[in-house]
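[job 4417] fold queue: 2 targets
>>> target A
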Amino acid sequence: MMTSPISIQTTPSLLMPGDMYRALPRVSNSDLTRLKEEHLGYWSTPSARFIPEKTKVFGRAFHQHLLEPETVGTVLSQFLPDMIDSSNQVDPNKLAPSQAKQLQALMQTIRQDAFCRRYLRLSERERIVLSTEPTTGIACKARLDMVYTSPKRRNALIIDLKTTSARTQAQFLESCYTYDYDRQAAFYVDNLRHADNGEWDTTRQFRFVFIGVMKQRPYRLFAVDATSIPGFLDYGRKKYRFWLRKWQEEQAQPELMVPAWSMSA
């Protein structure tokens, strides 16, 4: 069975390196994705498992540059060692010119947008939230790109950044359903609602906004307010609770070997 929630206070990820977060014996949204893939088959639904490694690295680099610029040298040295100079800094001369130009364009697009610029300044970035899902008692974890809580804690806004190949708002919205972003949004919102340290217990309103930035010219931005779409979070909540119960059932069967990823991020 799942171990009881460990007594670690909700903390900014700057105080908890990625490997420590992944080692927490809690279930993440990524775990549910892997569980779904194993049950339905890797080829039955779009899967990050088959995204080219260069694409994955670029997405990680984008998030690191934007959300955790102070860790860029350290993190990129793990992914792209040839990009790092002797002082452990990113060497722009070792970036492929097309990659460097693309990354700079995406960063500029985000930072020139008034909404993004405001919440990049006001939000906690890469915030870790530990919670206990009330219907199953399972200890969960989430790492949020950006979360803003109003001064009196009455409102909370979660922002999740996505690079996308979509070229229209409609295509980006469609991708939110294709890639289970409804499940992610519900999982993250409920992690705040049920945070183990009670930080958002008095919060009245939770909003979740996806920001998509085109990976190709003209590098447009798309925004989807997940909480404003009728049924979006409700359907996502049904999804994640279904897979949590499936995960719980597997833990209760001692004859089955616990998947190695069950303790990963």
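>>> target B
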Amino acid sequence: MTKRGPLTDLGPIMQLAYLPSDFDAAIKHWTEVVGAGPFFLMENIQLGEMTYKGQPSDAMFSVAWAYWGDMQIELIRPENDAPSIYTGEYAVRDQLHHVCIVVDDLEAARAALNAAGAEILIEGKVGDTGGVFYADAGGGPGNIVEYVKLAEGGPELFAMMREAARGWDGSEPLRKLG
């Protein structure tokens, strides 16, 4: 039997994330063609103590989240040109950009990433109680995995979005948060 890699048991993929060339057209496609939605928009996000490849970065981005069944879809719009995975070599557009796994223990995720020889591209704080890593385990652009410990209130926010998608009638496809 082949030994499974060190990243296997960190958790299931809960999100597919995209960096569309045309953010509004992507919302329209996902809601009207695919049937995901409604999308919830959070604008001008900056991670606390964010680093990109070990160097401080003040990258700012907006995201829209929706559910397609039990899978979360994330659409990302960079708001500045600061170094990040949304600019430069990792900014693959109009295809899968990254997947996300929610973890309870970021240090266990860091240890598994180190064991796999992965490069942590982005590290930062999410609110006062959460944190995140975006890592390349060798697949390069389009193969990033996000490991996030949700901040307090995060699970409830995502549950509200998932519930809004159940039986959604197509009205108000984009809703602003905060």
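[job 4417] complete. Note on B: The mean pLDDT is 96.
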